[in-house]
Specification:
about 35% helix; globular; four-stranded mixed β-sheet; about 20% strand; Peroxisomal Thiolase, Chain A, domain 1; single chain; 2 domains; five-stranded mixed β-sheet; binds coenzyme A
Length: about 325
Amino acid sequence: MYQSEIIGCGMYVPEKIVTNNDLAQVMETSHEWIIQRSGIEERRWVTPEVSTSDLALKACEEAIKNAGIDKKEIDCILFATISPDHDFPGSACFLQPKLGLTEIPAIDVRQQCSGFIYGLSMADAFIKTGQYKTILLVGAEIHSKGLDKTTRGRDVAVLFGDGAGAVVIRRAEAQNGAKDSKIFSTHLFAEGVHAKELWAAAPGSGLGSELRMNHEHVEAGLFFPQMNGKKVFANAVRRMCECLMLALEKNNLKLEDIDLFLFHQANLRINQMLAQELKIPEEKVFNTIMKYGNTTAATIPIGMSEAVKAGKLKKGSLVASAAFGSGFTWASTIYRW
Ligand SMILES: CC(C)(COP(=O)(O)OP(=O)(O)OC[C@H]1O[C@@H](n2cnc3c(N)ncnc32)[C@H](O)[C@@H]1OP(=O)(O)O)[C@@H](O)C(=O)NCCC(=O)NCCS
């Protein structure tokens, strides 16, 4: 069986910075409330003409450059997003020609905040079985076009931002099997009984209406995300802890062996609680949520890019990532950078 490794990463966020005070101009909220509950100081929003695949393209171009490959070597695209360019086809199909590529498979991954690790797991499996050799995995989101930016939607609207992160994953040249493995393992979970604790109902065939989207749905705001914040928070801490410990156990590793923790960025308080419960030193957890908010499928690859730039993620670093999100879904992975 082959092994796989991440050989380059890239990111892109739109230029427009939206501060907490900017949000307080359009809804009843405050910088103090947002900072205290989530740690978020600002986030980025796109301008209207930009689509999710446009953001993804920029992150992918940087990842391809950093990987030092010719883009023609890519034999599969995986695109994790919950804010696609259009209802269908998937955003990977819109991204492929923008990259100047043709015919290679273009697959969307719809696992919300766990989407990047789900995609990594799929890429790893494709490479291990020999089906593909060089895979481009991107997580990108434009949340700003799907949020209720009034006081009605403030519990969700203040948490999310736009952005993209990408990696190139390639068959590793290692000769010694598992010992040299760069992606050690991935662990995926879901519990669909909680699907409606964080979801957007419309458009949807499950609405009991003749059309998947009608005027009543629009008026009721059914295309905006709805969230049970307290339940999501509690489950995020519990499940991320569990799946992280499982990944360590499966690889005979201890928490102390990990050089850097790159967790999903949903709420700084979730990651602080996770670190506190597991007694992980603060300097080993790399957070970006303060600047970008929750960019869902993009948080982990954005974290990789920023950690490389900050000198925190170096060649040979042993990294653990974990994520939790809508579904509920959660996932973990351990990899050598
Ligand atoms: C959303 C979240 C920050 C709310 O924090 P919380 O501690 O549960 O909220 P609190 O109980 O302290 O406050 C709720 C009150 O604040 C109000 N409120 C909600 N959003 C607000 C905002 N943006 N600004 C000001 N007040 C707000 C509510 O209306 C409520 O008011 P009430 O008590 O008068 O009814 C928190 O639950 C959370 O982060 N959950 C997880 C979210 C997440 O991670 N989502 C993505 C998962 S991938």
